[in-house]
TrEMBL record:
InterPro entries: AAA+_ATPase, ABC_transporter-like_ATP-bd, ABC_transporter-like_CS, ABC_transporter_ATP-bind, P-loop_NTPase. Keywords: ATP-binding, Nucleotide-binding, Transport. This is ABC transporter ATP-binding protein. It holds the Pfam family ABC_tran.
Length: 280
């Protein structure tokens, strides 16, 4: 398997100075070129797993491999797109996108040519000389996707990349991300709190439980041959994931608030107005 997570665990020291297992053991395998999402309650270790794959966090137990090689440090083959675009405000959009290539010692002209290719892909080529403060939140996030793609990574690790954006912008970027994924063949691992987003974008959704973070379910999302997911299937899959997560959230609330707490299932619902779906 291409990207393999085998018995991976992570421990952090809590407020009482005790080492606590926050994640694992996790076993999962991601195929090359696939689009996989992780959803789970806050604090279940989604970002921690993503950062371990990025080589930004150490693995305490188990093994992470890509193409059979152990992941021990960050590499340009695995690039992270964060929730905030994190662009350099003093650089133009083109300079922001070419920055990583300059570090890789790619000649200026070749770097700019490649950067323009990816700026075109995210529909921002005419903003090459603008500065980040002149762009909307959605445009900035497009730049950060171009900045990641220009490194031509094998894996794009996306940590709630659209959660700070309004729903309309988010919908447009969903479509663009899927187009980019199809065009480039990059493998995408996408972390989100938005269940519908995970269902709409991915081929597979891992549903995480918490304390410690473990995989509760692995859900394959079947699509029509044109890549579209029928509405009914979207809602059914979303409902299925919510049901799994409700048990998890109830577990956390019981731990935090004691037996007196009665879990109100109405708190989680499918929105009849077709908004961007259920958040957890
Ligand atoms: N550097 C750290 N030191 C101590 N504890 C940490 C550290 N990083 C994360 N944690 C803890 O590990 C757990 C998992 O955190 P993580 O951010 O991976 O969860 P998450 O599922 O991504 O959460 P969210 O959805 O809220 O972003 C949390 O309980 C968090 O408080």
């Amino acid at each position: 398997m291409y990207l393999k997570v085998s018995g991976v665990e992570k421990f952090f020291v809590n407020d009482q100075q005790e080492a606590t297992r926050v994640l694992g053991p996790i076993d999962l395998a991601i195929e090359k070129g696939s689009f996989v999402s992780i959803v789970g309650p806050s604090g279940c270790g989604k970002s921690t797993l993503l950062y371990m794959i990025a080589g930004l966090e150490e693995v305490d137990q188990g093994q992470l491999t890509m193409n059979g090689k152990q992941i021990v440090r960050p590499g340009v083959d695995r690039v992270v797109v964060f929730q905030e675009a994190g662009l350099f405000p003093w650089m133009t959009i083109l300079e922001n996108v070419t920055y990583g290539l300059k570090i890789k010692k790619i000649a200026k002209q070749a770097a700019e040519k490649k950067a323009m290719e990816y700026l075109k892909m995210v529909h921002l080529s005419k903003y090459r000389d603008a500065y980040p403060h002149q762009l909307s939140g959605g445009m900035k996030q497009r730049v950060s996707i171009a900045r990641a793609l220009v490194m031509e990574p094998e894996v794009l690790l996306m940590d709630e990349p659209f959660s700070a954006l309004d729903e309309q912008t988010r919908m447009v970027l969903h479509k663009e991300l899927v187009d980019i994924w199809r065009k480039t063949g990059v493998t995408i691992l996408f972390v989100t709190h938005n269940i519908r987003e995970a269902v709409l974008l991915s081929e597979k959704v891992y549903v995480f439980g918490t304390r410690p973070g473990i995989i509760k379910a692995e859900i394959a999302i079947p699509r029509l041959t044109n890549g579209i997911l029928p509405d009914q299937l979207t809602l059914q899959t979303e409902q299925r994931i919510l049901t799994i997560l409700q048990t998890e959230i109830e577990k956390v609330l019981k731990e935090e608030l004691g037996d007196d707490y009665r879990f109100e299932t109405e708190l989680l619902h499918l929105d009849a107005d077709h908004d961007m779906g259920s958040y957890i």
